[in-house]
What does this fold into?
Amino acid sequence: MYGTVFNLNVKEGHKDKLIEVMGANDRTPDGMVAWFLMNPDDDTDLIGVAIFENKDAHLANANNPDQHEYFVAMMEHLNSEPTWTDGEYVAGQIVR
It folds into this structure.
C-alpha cells in the first residue's frame, strides 16, 4: 500500500468548518483504501492519513481535477499548503 501523511495548518476559528468540508466529501477515488483525519490532543493543527492500493492510484488521485476542486475548498480554511510525506506503508495492522 502507498499513501501520504499530511499536516494541515488551520486558520484560527476554521477547524470545525474544515472538518465539515473534509467529512462531506463523498468522492471515493479509485484505489483508495482509507483516509483518516486526526484532531491532536494538543489542539494544534490537524493531521491526515490517506491510504491507497499503490503509488499509481495515489498519483492518479493527486492529478484528478475533482481532487483539485476539493483541495481548493480545503485551502479556504488553511494558513498554508499542507505538508505531505508520501511513501509506501511497510507494516501495519487493522484490529477490530
Observations:
- The helical segments are 15-24, 55-62, 65-75.
- The longest strand covers residues 2-8.
- The mean pLDDT is 94.
